[in-house]
Amino acid sequence: MRKEDLINLTEEFGCPLYVYDAATIERQYNRLTTAFKKVDRFKVHYAVKALSNLNILKLLKGFGSGLDTVSIEEVRLGLHAGFDPKDIIYTPNGVSMEEIEQVALMGVQINIDNLSILEQFGTKHPTIPVCIRINPHVMAGGNANISVGHIDSKFGISIHQLPHLLRIIENTKMHINGIHMHTGSDILDVEVFLYAAEILFETAKNFKSLDFIDFGSGFKVPYKKGDIETDVEEFGKKLTKRFLAFEKEYGRELTLAFEPGKFLVSEAGFFLAKVNVVKQTTSTVFAGVDTGFNHLIRPMLYGSEHYIENISNPKGKERFYSVVGYICETDTFASNKRIKEITEGDILCFHNAGAYCYSMSSNYNSRVKPAEVLWLNGKGHLIRQRETFEDILRNQVEIDFVNTNTNETVNA
C-alpha cells in the first residue's frame, strides 16, 4: 500500500485505525501453498486467534483455507463466515468437557491435548474421530510466552506419556484420525522444526488409521527492516521430502496440515496513530500518540518491535524518538528509535500490525477500540466500526443506590 492511501484512510475513518491489505494476505497464503505444492493433500487452517474479523475469515475461505480454532466462540465465528464444519479444527486447552461436547455436535474436527479429557471423551463418544495434540518437548519460539512445545508447557500430551495414551485408546476403542503438534511462534531454525517433525512421525506409527498430520505453525515474520524470518520455501522442500517418504512408509495417503496465523496476516496489517504531543525532557524526546497498549499490547507484553514510520514526513531528517501511548502507566512502543522528524499532528504507521493487535485489544482506561479497514482492489472497506462511549456502557448494569444513612444501602 502507498503511504498516501494510508493517510487518506485516516482522513476518512479517523485515528487510531487498523488497516489490512488483502493482497498481502493472498501473497502469504500462496507462498505457503506453493512451498508444499508437491504434497497432493495439503491443507492450511488459518489460526483465528490472530485476527478474527469475519471479513478476514471470508477472504481466506475464498483462497481455500480452513480454520484453526481454540474456543467455541471462534468455531461459531467460522460457521457464521460460511466455513464447512469439516474444514475447522478445534484445539482447546483447559476448557470444560461440556464445551468440547458442544463443539463436537457442530461437526468440526476435535483435537484433544490432555489424557483426562481424552479418556472422558473417548468413553462417552468413541465413534467421534479425534486428533491428538502431542507435546514433542522441543523448545522453539522467540519468547517464553509463545513457546508452547517445551517440557514445562501446559499444552499437549507428553511424548513420554505415550503408553498411557495408547492404553486409553485401547480401552475406549476411540477412533484417532489425526496427530498434531505446535512448538511455538517465531521459529527461526528450520532444523529444530524438522527435528520436532521426526518425533511426530515416529509417534504417528502407533496409530494405524490416521487421515492427517498437523504440524501447527509458528513461522517467524520480519517485524523491522533487516529482520530475519523463517525460510518457508526451504522448509517446504525439506519437510515435503520427508513427509512423502513417511507417507509411503505409513502405507496410506495422508493430509499434511499447518495452522498459520501471524504468517498470513501480520505483514498485511498497518496500525495508524496521530501524534498528540512531542515532549522534550532532559534526556529523551517523546512522541506521544493517540493510542496505547490497549490497542497494541505486543511491545509491552512480549517486548516485540514494530517498525514505526512517519508517513506524514517520509523525506524528513531522521531523529531519535521514544514513541509512547496515552495509557496511565508505562506505555512504550519504541525507545530511542530513528524516525523521520515528527511534529504534532503527524501520522505514525506501525507495521506488522495484522496479528494479535486488534484481537488482543481492550478497553483499558475506558478507551474505545479503533475501527478496522480492509484494503481490497484499491479501495478501503470499513469492516468494523469504531466503538463509541455507548459500547463502553452497553453491558454494564446500573443499580439504584438509596440513602446511605439507612441500614438498607442498596436496592437492586
TrEMBL record:
User: Any idea where the Orn/DAP/Arg decarboxylase 2 N-terminal domain is?
Assistant: 23-266
| Orn/DAP/Arg decarboxylase 2 C-terminal domain segment(s) | 18-354
> Keywords, A to Z?
Amino-acid biosynthesis, Decarboxylase, Lyase, Lysine biosynthesis, Pyridoxal phosphate
Q: Where does pyridoxal 5'-phosphate bind?
A: G218, Y356
Q: Give the protein's cofactors.
A: pyridoxal 5'-phosphate
Decide whether keyword Amino-acid biosynthesis is in the record.
yes
So which domain of life are we looking at?
Bacteria
Q: Which amino acid positions bind substrate, per UniProt? A: R298, Y302, E329, Y356
Amino-acid biosynthesis in keyword set: yes
A GO molecular function annotation here is: diaminopimelate decarboxylase activity
What pathway is this protein a component of?
A: Amino-acid biosynthesis; L-lysine biosynthesis via DAP pathway; L-lysine from DL-2,6-diaminopimelate: step 1/1
Q: Record's PROSITE patterns?
A: ODR_DC_2_1
**UniProt catalytic activity:** meso-2,6-diaminopimelate + H(+) = L-lysine + CO2
Q: Which residues carry this modification: N6-(pyridoxal phosphate)lysine?
A: K49
Q: What is its EC number?
A: 4.1.1.20
List the HAMAP family.
LysA (MF_02120)
The record describes the protein's role as:
Specifically catalyzes the decarboxylation of meso-diaminopimelate (meso-DAP) to L-lysine.
Q: Which family does it belong to?
A: Belongs to the Orn/Lys/Arg decarboxylase class-II family. LysA subfamily.
User: Subunit details for this protein?
Assistant: Homodimer.
- Protein's name in the database: Diaminopimelate decarboxylase
Instruction: Look up and give the organism this protein is from.
Output: Flavobacterium chuncheonense
